[in-house]
Amino acid sequence: MNLKLSNGTEIPAVGLGVWQVEDGAQTERAVSAALEAGYRLIDTAQGYGNEASVGKAIRESGIPRAEIFLTTKFLPAEDDPFVEAEKSLERLGTDYLDLYLIHWPQGGPTWAWPGMEKVSAAGLSKGIGVSNFSAAELAELAKVSEIPAAVNQVYFSPFAYRRALLDAGNEAGLITQAYSPLGTGEHLTDPVVGRIAEELGRTPAQVLIRWGVQKGLSVIPKSVNPERIQKNFAVFDFELDDAAVATLDALDTTGGTTESNENKWW
Ligand code: A2P
């Protein structure tokens, strides 16, 4: 299942995130397992240090590059998104990105955007967007952007159900993407999630991922385990009913915030 982006391309509703996956064999194995299981979205970042392994696994899969949606991110401690995008492409061993994101709004939400637009204009990336932006930061960015942000990738799950941020993203015409949809694994042992999973004969991870899909998000769970990678993608043959969705919605601890993150490390 794909979602439509404002730049005219489509992004898969579920992808593999490789944050905290070790460069080398671990990343190569995870990306290979994901592509084999049917994933067509791989999400990495300059800051993860594993772009070369992501690129290697993609090339070795034999799947045409055009069939894979590849995201990486600009580390805003650096000066110039264009220069960094060229370096990411080199490490990834590919000649274009599907999506290039500002990793977080360090130094403010707007200074890097002209460089991002240059990345887009030069064809280095089909789409450009942001990550860890609040609704206020999205609004500031919208005021100065010629090309709108196609995606805002944020920490999102039923426990971090940033309803107002999701609404702001929808109003801005962008797709909100959920990283750490399993709460970095912490939400998998929640009894409410467990009960819903049991009733449906599904895993807790599938319930959390499916919830995000039903909210209209693109969701990028991380796993290094081939069996879990495969199961996390098997979320298109069942549905959460309204009662289950409402029960999951009620797990929110953010108050439906417009903020992207409680823990702003930038
Ligand atoms: P592992 O990589 O060993 O599978 P998030 O996507 O929220 O950041 O969560 C990632 C964490 O959840 C990782 O520690 C990952 O461990 C674990 N995880 C991912 N999928 C599953 C699953 N289906 N069952 C159990 N743990 C999972």
Automatic annotation (TrEMBL):
Is Magnesium set as a keyword in this record? no
Pinpoint the NADP-dependent oxidoreductase domain residues. Answer: 14-252
Keywords, comma-separated and alphabetical: NADP, Oxidoreductase
Q: Where does substrate bind?
A: H103
CDD domains, per database record: AKR_AKR1-5-like
State the InterPro entries in the record: AKR, Aldo/ket_reductase_CS, NAD(P)_OxRdtase_dom_sf, NADP_OxRdtase_dom
Marked site: Lowers pKa of active site Tyr: K73
The active site lies at Y48 (proton donor)
A single GO molecular-function term is: oxidoreductase activity, acting on the CH-OH group of donors, NAD or NADP as acceptor
- PROSITE patterns found in the cross-reference section: ALDOKETO_REDUCTASE_1, ALDOKETO_REDUCTASE_2, ALDOKETO_REDUCTASE_3
Q: Which family does it belong to?
A: Belongs to the aldo/keto reductase family.
Q: What is this protein called?
A: Aldo/keto reductase
Q: Which organism is it from?
A: Kribbella antibiotica
